[in-house]
Write a structure and sequence with these properties.
single chain, 17% strand, binds nicotinamide-adenine-dinucleotide, three-stranded mixed sheet, binds thymidine-5'-diphospho-beta-D-xylose, Rossmann fold, alpha/beta, seven-stranded parallel sheet
Length: 337
């Protein structure tokens, strides 16, 4: 199998490239990544020279580049992960989310239609379903009701992908996963941001009352789900992934402080995120039954291992939190205190 994997230099993408190379011996992966602020060539630097891996720096919105790549590589399948992925940034500057997540996806769908692929896996998020009240779970039949520019752009790309199945019979499979954690996550997201701040004795900014709920899944469990969806998923179908690990944000923050060995006095409640979704929770019964998939990681153990990874790989995130990150941090958090 020759796979086009977009966004392979980001968090989930880089973990997935490693999983594929380790567990699918006959596969070759071409990683198309623009290396935005969130993409980091360092994540996969050790793969240079590996004949089963090729890195192409490029923008998924560049139709000519994408068509050339499809023409030359004759891909069997696409795993599409490239996206602008951070909700807070979509509130500060929405346009690039429409460009990359909506238009970029359409460029890839069009190339896949022109050149033909056996599967087009569109990697999406549970945020397209909007927010839950205190009870209930998102199923694949939950109506789309996105709240942020990020989730609206992802919902749009989901609908485009499914439209290419209905209209052109492109063999599209859509996945929607809950919040991921694990190594190589950019420290703008809740868990790595809290670890990096706790390690440096900086305040831990908790939005609102800290009682919003997210349903956490280890990045490797998500990766295995994506492989199952690619190999066993039925075209035109949507599959939810989640690990039934709902936690209040404040409990995660307290757990991180405990694991790093820092006091709860570092917690700082700050102004809430605009339009902040209250609760996400996933029903992954369909993926479990139809794809034979199940999460393997236990949240508390895997969070401890994740904290350990960030403590041991401090140079990795210290290089990131300079330059652009500092400007973003000041813009996002400077006025929130
Ligand atoms: P990330 O921000 O860590 O990585 C995104 C990658 O895409 C980066 O390497 C970036 O350089 C690349 N990219 C961005 N714009 C591009 C463009 N125009 N052309 C080519 N490459 C571009 O994101 P992530 O957390 O790894 O998420 C990957 C995918 O999974 C996204 O589609 C996201 O919506 C989805 N997802 C994420 C989560 C989560 O919890 N992180 C949960 C569910 C779904
Ligand atoms: O500083 C913070 N303080 C805080 O209280 C940050 C960065 C977050 N939060 C809260 C907001 C959310 O309730 O923590 C929760 C998680 O926030 P994020 O890590 O930004 O994730 P979320 O907004 O839930 O979106 C994530 O999950 C779905 C990913 O970023 C998306 O890419 C994915 O689609």
């Amino acid at each position: 199998m020759n796979i086009l994997l977009t966004g392979g230099s980001g968090f989930i993408g880089s973990n997935l490239v490693r999983l594929i190379l380790a567990e699918r011996p006959g596969w070759r992966v071409v990683n198309l990544d623009k290396l935005t602020y969130a993409g980091n060539a360092e994540n996969l630097a050790d793969l240079s020279g590996n004949s089963r891996y090729r890195f192409v720096r490029g923008d998924i919105c560049n139709g000519e580049l994408v068509a050339d790549l499809f023409r030359n590589e004759r891909f069997d399948a696409v795993m599409h992960l490239a996206a602008e992925s951070h909700v807070d940034r979509s509130i500060l500057a929405p346009s690039i989310f429409i460009e990359t997540n909506v238009r970029g996806t359409q460029v890839l769908l069009e190339a896949a239609r022109e050149f033909g692929v056996k599967r087009f896996l569109h990697v999406s998020t549970d945020e397209v379903y909007g927010s839950l009240g205190p009870t209930g779970l998102f199923t694949e039949r939950t109506p789309l009701d996105p709240s942020s520019p990020y989730s609206a752009s992802k919902a749009s790309s989901d609908l485009l992908a499914l439209a290419y199945f209905h209209t052109f019979k492109l063999p599209v499979v859509v996945t929607r996963c809950s919040n991921n954690y694990g190594p190589y996550q950019f420290p703008e997201k809740l868990i790595p941001l809290m670890i990096a701040n706790a390690v440096r004795d900086l305040p831990l900014p908790v939005y609102g009352d800290g009682m919003n709920v997210r349903d956490w899944i280890h990045v490797e469990d998500h990766g295995r789900g994506l492989l199952a969806a690619l190999e066993l998923g039925e075209p035109g179908q949507v599959y939810n992934f989640g690990a039934s690990s709902e936690r209040h944000n404040i409990d995660i923050v307290k757990l991180v402080l405990k694991l790093v060995g820092k006091p709860e006095s570092l917690i700082q409640y700050v102004k809430d995120r605009l339009g902040h979704d209250r609760r996400y929770a996933i029903d992954s019964t369909k993926a479990q039954q139809k794809l034979g998939w199940a999460p393997r990681h236990i949240f508390e153990d895997a969070l401890a291992a994740t904290v350990e990874w960030y403590v041991e790989n401090r140079p990795w995130w210290e290089r990131i939190i300079s330059g652009e990150y500092l400007k973003y941090y000041e813009k996002q958090y400077g006025a929130r205190k």
